[in-house]
Design a protein that fits this description.
The complex is a heterodimer of chains A (290) and B (369). Chain A is mainly α. Chain A is built from 14 helices and no strands. Chain A is globular and about 75 Å long. The chains are: A mainly alpha (290), B alpha+beta (369).
Chain lengths: 290, 369
């Protein structure tokens, strides 16, 4: 066993494979490297033309600038208020769309009614409507609801748009969830919502993680809705980053831009790192037959 | 009026009627087994008793109270599912406790009952484990524990043993029977396994095609099947069914059977029920244990008749040897003692115990004698 493993790990094919993988790895990580090193140097070092070099003079000043003092649009507030906007937008939008998606999936699989398949088809259709098509009707809707140009308006848009995908995820997951468990809970005396809260949701870890990662990434990274439905004070991070880069009051501060771009990407990265491990866990293992 | 009354209950899905009008009255403490091949309507009937499926017409009553439209939770029943249906996110304790919690039983009382039941089923050491960490037999016990703590009027079992391996299945079967004898609760049990049905039940309902074919004690079902379906379904190896003709022999009606070598033999019936049917074609039914070697025949029987028939195949099974001959174009199996020297191709005396013989109408397949 051990000798076989030894010989195979030292074979020529293996070595070539690892070198290749390493090259790919470097290729993919290079942009991140460029962003990180340049966000930590003074602007003069970048304009002098040393993009790939490590900073000679390490400084965190660009980060502080991007966070709290840089010129974004007309005001010199840094990205901080917009980062908060994005957080306030993304958390309820993800939570609501995931919860409603789970509830939809539960009803569509365990309490199917006449026409539920058609309803599911229509919801699915919602996943594939291009964003551009809904811009004008949605603007009108938000206006009528008094939510135009506000963070709650953006939450609403992303929540509604997210239902299609979250329903798809949960419906397919719950379709494989043993109906006998629901029946057992019914006999035990649990009602519609009790079964959902106590039996289905606690067993939905893997799919909830998938759904949350998907929704979080989409909503956080969304630019079109953010640019279309927000005012200056309700802009999300993506729009503000664009404004930061576009605002030219003299020189382009590339180091500040790099720092801002990393800030904008950080939350999605964090979600992957924290939640990614739950992907693999089979929480359903052993609930029913061996 | 019984403890659990099923009165003219039917079930249809649109135009498809899966359960024809069914009347069964179960007494308190009875162990009723619904048995039949898949698609016979047995699980549907169980789900109707549980309240998981609506009744299309008719009525189901427990303790004289109509259950039509009553939610499963309010019927005071408990069910053990084929897949056990243990909640994967809860511990064994949580699983057993959940139903009591939903029914508003105080924590102290819950703990007490969990202790009692886990002692009874010997699962005390498993209480803090998750279902995923249990073996099949342990899950089975937990599922029964979950049903037992509810102290229900009626226990419903939906093929509870079919996911276990053969040896464990036999062990658990005995345990369920012991449990029933100890607790004396009313049980309705669905299975497709006729041996489970015969061993466990106090009464059996044999179902096929949405109809209850026969309802009776295991002995009635086994000895006096109402029709050819019941005769063929219950018992293993199943009852021999082969064509015969009623003839008159010595003033008594006899069955004339055609042997594989072209000869015919007349075997007198033990009773005179077919005296008026001389000349009629019938299907004769005799169980393998009523066709034996000469010395293995039932000494108490007054109607053992010897027929010399050619042996086609012998199947030694350790405790017995099954000997197959052709009668009327059908394979007929006899159960011989293991040490009888009989070989394929021999012409050998078969002892027919006609006290155990039954006769069916070839067209309606119903019992005529």
């Amino acid at each position: 066993m051990s000798t076989a493993a030894k010989s195979s790990s030292f074979s020529a094919g293996r070595i070539i494979l690892y070198i290749l993988l390493l090259l790919f790895c470097i290729y993919y990580l290079l942009p991140l490297y460029v962003m990180v090193v340049n966000s930590l140097k003074p602007l003069s070092e970048i304009t002098a033309g040393g993009m790939m070099a490590l900073p000679r003079d390490w400084t965190a000043a660009p980060w502080f600038s991007a966070w709290s003092t840089a010129q974004v649009g007309v005001e010199a507030t840094g990205l901080r208020p917009y980062f908060l906007n994005s957080i306030i937008m993304v958390v309820p939008a993800v939570a609501l769309s995931t919860l409603v998606g789970a509830l939809n999936g539960y009803v569509l699989t365990k309490w199917a009614f006449k026409g539920s398949t058609i309803l599911f088809g229509l919801l699915l259709f919602g996943c594939f409507i291009p964003f551009q098509m809904v811009l004008i009707p949605m603007a009108r809707m938000l206006g009528l609801m008094g939510l135009a140009g506000s963070v709650p308006g953006l939450i609403f848009v992303h929540f509604v748009y997210g239902i299609g995908f979250s329903t798809l995820y949960f419906r397919n997951y719950y379709a494989a969830f043993p109906t006998e468990l629901v029946r057992a809970a019914q006999i035990d005396g649990a009602g519609f919502f009790r079964i959902f809260w106590r039996i289905l949701l606690p067993s939905s870890g893997p799919i909830a993680v998938v759904c949350i990662i998907w929704q979080f990434t989409n909503i956080w990274n969304d630019f079109l809705f953010g640019a279309s439905f927000s005012d200056f004070d309700s802009q999300p991070m993506t729009v503000a980053l664009n404004n930061l880069v576009q605002s030219s009051t003299g020189v382009k501060e590339y180091n500040v831009h790099f720092a801002g771009a990393i800030m904008a990407a950080l939350p999605t990265l964090l979600v992957y790192i924290v939640a990614g491990r739950y992907f693999v866990r089979g929480l359903m293992a052993g609930s029913v037959k061996g | 009026m019984g403890f659990l009354d099923i009165k003219q209950a039917t079930k249809s899905y649109g135009a498809l009627q899966v359960l024809q009008e069914t009347d069964i009255s179960v007494e308190e403490g009875e162990f009723l087994v619904l048995v039949g091949p898949s698609g016979c309507g047995k699980s549907t009937l169980l789900n109707m008793i549980a309240g998981l499926e609506d009744i299309t017409s008719g009525e189901i009553a427990i303790r004289g109270k109509s259950m039509n439209g009553v939610k499963p939770a309010d019927r005071n029943i408990a069910m053990v599912f084929q897949s056990y249906a243990l909640y994967p996110n809860m511990t064994v304790r949580g699983n057993i406790s959940f139903g009591m919690e939903m029914h508003g039983i105080q924590k102290q009382e819950r703990e007490k009952r969990i202790d009692q039941v886990s002692d009874l089923l010997q699962i005390s050491h498993l209480l803090d484990r998750k279902p995923g960490q249990l073996s099949g037999g342990q899950r089975q016990r937990v599922a029964m524990g979950r049903a037992l703590v509810r102290e229900p009027d009626v226990f419903l079992f939906d093929e509870p043993l079919s996911n276990l391996d053969a040896k464990l299945r036999v062990d658990m079967r005995t345990e369920i029977k012991k449990l029933h004898q100890k607790l004396g609760t009313t049980i309705v049990y669905v299975t497709h396994d006729q041996i489970e049905a015969l061993t466990l039940s106090t009464r059996i309902a044999v179902m096929f095609g949405g109809y209850v074919q026969q309802l009776g004690t295991p002995k009635e079902i086994y000895d006096n099947p109402a029709n050819m379906f019941v005769a063929g379904f219950m018992g293993s190896p199943s009852m021999n069914l082969f064509p015969a003709k009623v003839v008159s022999g010595d003033g008594k009606p006899a069955a004339e059977i055609k042997l594989a070598d072209g000869k015919t033999a007349a075997v007198p019936f033990a009773k005179d029920a077919l005296a008026s049917s001389i000349g009629r074609d019938i299907i004769l039914g005799i169980r393998p244990e009523a066709i034996t070697d000469k010395d293995g025949a039932d000494r108490n029987s007054q109607a053992v008749h010897i027929v010399e028939a050619p042996v086609e195949v012998t199947e030694p099974a350790g405790s017995d040897t099954f000997v197959v001959s052709q009668i009327g174009g059908k394979d007929v199996t006899g159960r011989f003692r293991a040490d009888v020297a009989v070989n394929a191709g021999d012409v050998f005396p078969f002892a027919f115990n006609m006290e155990k013989a039954v006769a069916f109408d070839p067209k309606t397949e119903n019992r005529i004698a």
